[in-house]
Amino acid sequence: MDIDPHNPNANRRGRPPGVPNKVTTRIRDAFALLVSENLDNLSIWLAAVAEKDPLAALRVITDLAEFSIPKLARSEISHEGVAAIPGEVMVVIHSKDPPKDPGAVQHPEVG
């Protein structure tokens, strides 16, 4: 959007630092309202997705979380000047029920 060069009230410096974008704020608020008004439905929908594909249900949760929880920056852990050692993180989900997918990977300590 071009600034009218003849308008003495035009803000030529843009939005000041720290002032949120109005459109982005309205969209976030609308999404938060949509989610809050459908919490019961979300549980039903998530359960239906999880029944067919638990990993897809987990992706739905993480995708929705992006709209309400700020993303954390990646961190590097070091000890006394020693660079971080790359590694793996294992997430274990404990369940009372056996997996519906016979090919699902199970941790040896879990069921």
Q: What's the short version?
A:
The chain is built from 3 helices and no strands. With 111 residues, it is an all-alpha fold.
Report the helical percentage. Answer: 25-40%
The description of the largest β-sheet is: none
Q: Spell the H/E element sequence.
A: HHH
Extended strand count: 0
Q: Any idea what the shape is?
A: flat
Tell me the radius of gyration.
23 Å
Number of DSSP helices?
3
Classify the beta-strand content into a percent band. under 5%
Weakly predicted, low-confidence segments: none
Structural class: mainly alpha
Distance between the termini: 60 Å
- What's the overall average pLDDT, rounded? 76
Identify the notable features of this structure and list them briefly.
111 residues; flat; mainly alpha; 38% helix
Please give a structural write-up.
- The structure is a single chain.
- This protein has helices at 22-37, 39-52, 54-65.
- 38% of the residues lie in helices and 0% in strands.
- Helix 2 (39-52) packs antiparallel against helix 3 (54-65).
- With 111 residues, it is mostly helical.
